[in-house]
Amino acid sequence: MPAAYLTIGPWQLALASVLLLVNLALSAWLRLGLGRSLLVAAARMVAQLLLVGLVLEFVFALNRPLPVLGIALVMATLAGLAAVNRTRRRFPGVLLDSLLTVMAAAFVVTGASLLGILRVRPWFEAQYAIPLLGMVLGNTLNGISLALDRFTEGVVAGRATIETDLALGASRWEAAHGLIGDSLRTGMIPTINAMMVMGVVSLPGMMTGQILAGAAPTDAVRYQIVIMFMIASATALGALGVTLLAFRTLFDGRDRLRADRLWRAGDGPGRRRGGAR
């Protein structure tokens, strides 16, 4: 039989924080200047996770659809913002594009999995809906940010080639489809790499958590496989969606490249001149 589930108390958390002394010592020894950042990050992480734990306990106790949907929307909105913040260039509507794609990809895949694969009843069971959505969102935002960054940087780096193709009669799709493919490939690489070594080099977090909670290893493995297929699907949909929306903005209906609509992150649209550089 599985071992009993072990709870972690406040003193155990405090003892675990001692492990950060390794990082602090290395930072001081090598003069990395990371001590303050590490302490701030650790404090924020602890505060955020403890707050999330309290909120989730409240939502789990309610077991109603509206609180679950509310948390899901907040999570998806924050994921969309984070995806844009990780890119080096902006264009008009990029934030809305990111929000739409991350919500559509994550909600469709998570909803289909809850209803069609896991067959959770009711569908808004917070124990399943929120953790699954959170894992899908975290990976989808990475795929979106990588694909979006690759596409906008590719437009800048390949501007001369793209405009030459357009001038010679190529349509906007013909001029950009190679870059779109590269962007989708870039967004998918982390997920593919994780799938390649999973179970051999690394034991994923969800599977490990279930085993620690007392679940049979075979059951935990099945859940992890479902999760990885969900992540791969949502990441592909999100990366493709945001790339196509960026393509629509940066290539107009008259088959022209609109590099003037790009600007560097931090500059703001009012400071761009003659397109991104």
Explain what this protein looks like in three dimensions:
The protein is mainly alpha-helical and 277 residues long. The chain folds into 2 domains: 8-62; 65-271, no CATH class. Helix content is 72%, strand content 1%. The protein is built from 10 helices and 2 strands; from the N terminus they run ααααβααααααβ. It has helices at 10-17, 20-29, 35-62, 65-85, 94-117, 126-157, 159-167, 172-197, 205-212, 217-250; strands at residues 89-90, 263-264. Strands 1-2 form a two-stranded antiparallel ribbon. Helix 7 packs across helix 8. It is globular, with a radius of gyration of 22 Å. 30% of the residues are buried. The model has no long low-confidence stretch (mean pLDDT 89).
Topology:
Layout (H helix, E strand, L loop, with lengths): L9 H8 L2 H10 L5 H28 L2 H21 L3 E2 L3 H24 L8 H32 L1 H9 L4 H26 L7 H8 L4 H34 L12 E2 L13
Helix pairs in contact: 4-5, 4-6, 5-6, 5-10, 6-8, 6-10, 7-8, 8-10, 9-10
